Amino acid sequence: MTAGIRDLEVGMGDAPTPLAVGLPATLTDLQRPIPDPPAPRIALIAGEASGDLLGAGLIAQLRLRFPDAEFAGIGGETMRQAGCQTWFDASELAVMGLTEVLRHLPRLLKLRRQFRQHALAWKPDVFIGIDAPDFNLAIERWLKRRGVPTVHYVSPSVWAWREQRAEKIGASADRVLCLFPMEPPIYARHGVDARFVGHPMADDIPYQADRASARAALGLSASDPVLAVLPGSRHGEISRLGDTFFAAASQLSRRMPTLQVLVPSANAGCTPLLTEQLARSALPPPRVRLLDGQARTAMLAADVVLLASGTATLEAMLVKRPMVVGYKVAPLTYRIVKALGLLKVDRYALPNLLAGEDLAPELMQDDCTPERLCAALLDWFEHPDKGQALQSKYLALHQQLRCDASARAADAVAELLTQRPSADATG
Predict the structure, then answer these.
(1) Of 373 and 20, which is predicted with more confidence?
(2) Model confidence at 189: pLDDT above 60
(3) DSSP states of 135-175 as a string?
(4) With bands split at pLDDT 50, 70 and 90, how would you rate the model's confidence at 343?
(5) 410: enclosing H helix or E strand
(6) Per-residue b/e over 252-276, b at no fewer than 16 CB within 10 Å?
(7) How many whole angstroms separate alpha carbon 75 and alpha carbon 87?
(8) Who's near 282: CB < 8 A, 6+ residues apart?
(9) Which of 223, 321, 328, 416 could connect to 149 by a Cys-Cys bridge, CB 3.0–4.6 Å?
(10) Helical H runs in 256-341?
(11) Residue 28: is it exposed, middle or buried by C-beta count within 10 angstroms (0-12/13-18/19+)?
(12) For 370-393, b where at least 16 C-beta lie within 10 A, e where not — what string?
């Protein structure tokens, strides 16, 4: 027996040795484990609070698939809590409109250069740009040219204006992850790999909204009428909308003396401006509550919501609340968009776009006045049957968007990680 094993180890006659044919030289070699692939490095950039939430959900799901993965980039507190090392904070990207971008352009260009330097040294295996297309697409294109797989999470509104952007987005991103079902067919027309993953917010919010628990949590009367006012999550938005919104709420409170007004502040940076605007409004202080965050709780507690156009309108729809949507952009931005005919839709609020009908009144730019906002709000309060009639439509949209979005997005990213070798971002 011993001779036989030895013969196998050294070879017999003219037979090739195990080393020659790539077999283990000893039995010990058979027991050596195959080394695990290195833990992936995943770089991300998220702008604003909504992108920070999306990023945190995606990180949590990617961690389930790659327990030892490393995450780094630009994000907010929620992403940091999920385990992302943030080289810069997401608030540095929170600018909007053409004129604001132009004013902040030197700082944004410096931030982009600094991020590239960090990425160059860190060598990510994949990059995920979350929303913020004006900033992220350039980063994606730069990294893609250097062999890094790139993902853009949250499609720009190609269904609203400049559909031809889809092709340019595809030149920057290997894959686009879409929150809404009408988006992938547009990208398909331009040969771009786009996946509908659903909306994480639709996964988080239950189908049945619990107003009583929300009011109890905030110490509110179960019977008093409640209005939630959300004039935006960025300083520029609040500067343009806050005074107008609070003037509308003041007019409404004169018609409804027991009205309770809830004002959730999106972040600590917004609180001083909101405090100043509320102080100069005609709202009776005992009937106003400025909240530290808690936007969803405020919406759940409310009978009606007054809010800026944006992601918050989707949240109001998912908690099944009647709403009035107002919005203003910088006058120069508005004139340029109108003059060039860039906008291709008649509706702005996401619930209206998804439904293909007007579920919520939209009062934009010159129509966004205290008087018109107040009239639209009063209509909801005086006709609760109209709000009740919305419930089945809201529910259908909620079901369409609930797809376990963070998990589906993580699967789409994992495909890229397993299909390609680790990228070496050099050059």
Answers:
(1) 373
(2) yes
(3) HHHHHHHHHHHTT--EEEES---TTTS-TTHHHHHHHH-SE
(4) low
(5) helix 405-419
(6) bbeebeebbbbbbbbbeebbeebee
(7) 8
(8) 247, 250
(9) 416
(10) 271-280, 295-301, 311-318, 331-340
(11) exposed
(12) bebbbbbbbebbeeeeebeebeeb
What pLDDT does 92 receive?
A: 84
DSSP 3-state of 193:
coil
Q: Which tokens in the block code for residue 356?
A: 């293909």
Look-up of token digits 């949507």: 325
At which residue do the structure tokens 């331009």 appear?
190
DSSP letter at 191 equals T
Q: What are phi and psi of 180, to 5 degrees?
A: -125, 145
Q: Of 125, 187, 126, whose CA–CA distance to 156 is shortest?
A: 187
DSSP string, 343-384: ---S--SHHHHHHTS-SS-EEEGGG--HHHHHHHHHHHHH-H
Contact between 264 and 293 under an 8 Å Cβ cutoff? The reply is yes
- pLDDT at position 95 is 63
Token digits of residue 251: 């007019």
| 62/166 Cα distance (integer angstroms) | 26
Task: With CA atoms as reference, report the closest residue to 127 among 37, 55, 199, 53.
Answer: 55
CB 127 within 8 A of CB 143: yes
Counted residue by residue, the chain has a size of 427
How far, in whole angstroms, is CA 217 from its chain's centroid?
Answer: 26
Lowest mean pLDDT segment, chosen from 25-34, 57-66, 196-205:
25-34
Q: Determine how many CB atoms are found less than 10 A away from the CB of residue 424.
A: 12
Strand, helix or coil for residue 33: coil
- List domains and CATH numbers for the chain: 1-32 (no CATH), 41-198+404-419 (3.40.50.2000), 204-401 (3.40.50.2000)
